[in-house]
Amino acid sequence: MVTFAEDKVGFTRSTSYYFVIDGNKLFHISKYATSIQDKRSVVLYEVDLNRLSGKNIIEILVSNSGIYCDALEYPAQDWSLPYKRITKRPLSYLNNFEFEYLTWDEKKFLQGDWKQYYIPMIEQIRNFFDSVRNKKLNLLKGLTQEMHIFLPQLAQCQIENGINYPLSYLISYSPKAREKSLEVLTREIHQVWIASRIIEELDRLGALRSLTPSPSSNFQSIDFKQGSSLPIATFNCGIDTCSLWYEFDLTTHTMCDGTLSYLGKLPRGIEKIYERASKMYKDVKSFWHKERIPLRPDFVILSNINSCKDIRYASDIRFKAFIECKNFDIRYWRNDIDNQIIPYNEILQPDIALVASLKKVPDSIKKELDRHGIKVVDEVYPGGKGEKGLPKIITRFVGLSE
């Protein structure tokens, strides 16, 4: 008898998850356990290796930085040997197997929304990344600089490696943990795909000025980092310069990579935003940290501000637009209308406020948001009417046309 231990940490800290190959199916190690001890932070599976005779184990490795993009495969009988016969496999290798441990709802999502929406998004994102790295965008032609792309680790591994299933499904110990991870993963895929559509449209119109500028001149990049001190792109918008920011974080100690929190006093432009919030909501701290979602729009477009250095010295911050991305049915984000979207619009006071929904939104909801000056663009997915509609609305609004 041997004991397999799996920490209940998702993809946040070092652990391993264990699966067994049986024909063309992948089972979690729990199927073969004679006893299971579910403790506070770890699950222990006691297994008689004789039950695994002739079968191979797949070990998924996780570090503090996230999931490794490779898996280990070895004979089950070798599990406890220090020099077992290990084969390193790309996670795309698991495309060959059916995941037997998933719930009915998870299998339905895999064959439904994942196949219909997210696989095409990932393919288009990879094509966009190839265009960036190979300098096929008009902006990049003739540049000698290297191009880099930085994504959240799980999304990076998912998008770059030809994996046909959500990596979140490799969290073994809890369907709830898989669901929470999947919410984050699919949101990031949708956001990155939307950004790629906007950047390509800006490039097509000849308005794109730069992607994320590097502190050095050796390379340019697109850096999808929450609360970054730099936008993901800058572009011409009429007589002004505009910048597109990903997850623009207005929480005092984390915005701009945390650099503004060391100033002692907030920049005047940020103070004005806080002052507006104070007038509209009695308890601003509660608004941002307890009762409501933190003030961090998925995307904002700023006028004449190209970095956090500009924010530091700006007496006012003009929001040309904010865009909230919703990739699930309205019933999952209905409460966000009052708790997030409308407050964002009231506090930021953008020239235009947009909700980009993957799913179709009822007309009644569109009318409700329209009364608050917020426009809904739905069916924002590959082949959906919003795929071209959203970028065109944005570019026309900031003064760009054919």
User: What is the topology, as strand order, of the major beta sheet?
Assistant: 11-13-14-15-16-17-18
For the report, how would you describe the main beta sheet? 7 strands, mixed
Distance between the termini: 70 Å
Strand content: 25-35%
Shape assignment: elongated
* Low-pLDDT segments, ≥5 res: 288-292
What is Rg?
Answer: 23 Å
What is the structure about, briefly put?
This protein has helices spanning 104-133, 153-160, 175-204, 268-280, 284-289, 308-313, 330-333, 336-348, 363-370, 385-397, and strands spanning 2-7, 15-22, 25-28, 33-38, 42-47, 56-63, 66-75, 87-90, 98-99, 146-150, 208-211, 219-223, 233-237, 240-246, 299-303, 319-326, 352-357, 374-377. With 402 residues, it is α+β, with helices and mostly antiparallel strands. The protein folds into two domains: 2-99, no CATH class; 104-397, no CATH class.
Q: Key features?
A:
alpha+beta, single chain, 18 strands, 2 domains, elongated, 6-stranded mixed sheet, 402 residues
How would you characterize this protein structure?
Strand 17 (352-357), helix 9 (363-370) and strand 18 form a beta-alpha-beta unit. The strands form four sheets. Strands 11-13-14-15-16-17-18 form a seven-stranded mixed beta sheet, with helices on both faces. Strands 8-7-6-2-3-9 form a six-stranded mixed beta sheet. Strands 1-5-4 form a three-stranded antiparallel beta sheet, with no helix packed on it. It is of the alpha+beta class and 402 residues long. It has helices at residues 104-133, 153-160, 175-204, 268-280, 284-289, 308-313, 330-333, 336-348, 363-370, 385-397; strands at residues 2-7, 15-22, 25-28, 33-38, 42-47, 56-63, 66-75, 87-90, 98-99, 146-150, 208-211, 219-223, 233-237, 240-246, 299-303, 319-326, 352-357, 374-377.
